[in-house]
Structure formats: C-alpha cells, structure tokens
Amino acid sequence: MTLFVWTTARVCVAWPAGRVAALTPELFLARVRGPQIAIDKLEQKLRTLSTGIYTMQEFVKSKESENNYTVLAHQINTLIDEVNTSVVRALA
C-alpha cells in the first residue's frame, strides 16, 4: 500500500518497499497527472485524425456522386456494341 502525507511544503510518499520520497506539491501532482495528460493528448490526436478521416470520406463521396462513371461506362459500352454490329453487317 502506498502512503501519501501532504504537508504545506512537501508531499512525502512512502512505498511498500520502504522507499520514501519528499516532493513539492507541484512535482507530486505532475507525477500523478503525467499519465492522464498523455492520455488526454492521445485522445485529442485521435479526435483530430477522426475528423480528418470523416472530412476525406465526405470529399470522396461528393466526388463519386459528381462523376458517376457507371452510367457513362454503360453508354459507351452500348455505343461500342452498336458500332461493332454495324461493322459486322457492313463486312458481311
């Protein structure tokens, strides 16, 4: 069990192994909050990246809807079939 003793000038931390450390309150809080700050930064980075991904997905969807290639490809294939049929008839 870890024991914390808070005084006005120092925080004494006693670990089970018998180690004792005297820290200023600011340093103590920095050590305690350090992992939380790292997690907060990672969460902020994740939110930023997620926003970027969402924005890119919306951009791609808008471009796909602007350039609907399937209809155009179908029309081109139909035209090619008509031209091939005409050429076959002309050569026969």
In short:
With 92 residues, this protein is of the alpha+beta class. The protein contains 2 helices and 3 strands, in the order βββαα.
Outline the structure in words.
- The protein has helices spanning 25-66, 69-91; strands spanning 3-6, 11-14, 20-23.
- By secondary structure, the chain is α+β, with helices and mostly antiparallel strands.
- It has one domain (3-91).
- The N and C termini lie far apart (97 Å).
- The mean pLDDT is 77.
Features:
92 residues, three-stranded antiparallel beta sheet, 2 helices, rod-shaped
Q: What topology emerges from the helices and strands here?
A:
Layout: E1 3-6, E2 11-14, E3 20-23, H1 25-66, H2 69-91
Antiparallel strand pairs: 1-2, 2-3
Q: What is the chain-wise order of helices and strands? A: EEEHH
Q: Identify the strand order in the major beta sheet.
A: 1-2-3
Q: Into which percentage range does the β-strand content fall?
A: 5-15%
Radius of gyration: 35 Å
Q: Helical amount among residues, as a percent range? A: over 70%
Number-wise, the strands total 3
Q: What is the overall silhouette?
A: rod-shaped
How confident is the prediction overall: mean pLDDT?
A: 77
Distance between the termini: 97 Å
Q: Please indicate the count of domains.
A: 1
Secondary-structure content class: alpha+beta
Q: What is the number of helices?
A: 2
**Could you name the ranges where pLDDT drops below 50 across 5 or more consecutive residues?**
none
The profile of the biggest β sheet is: 3 strands, antiparallel
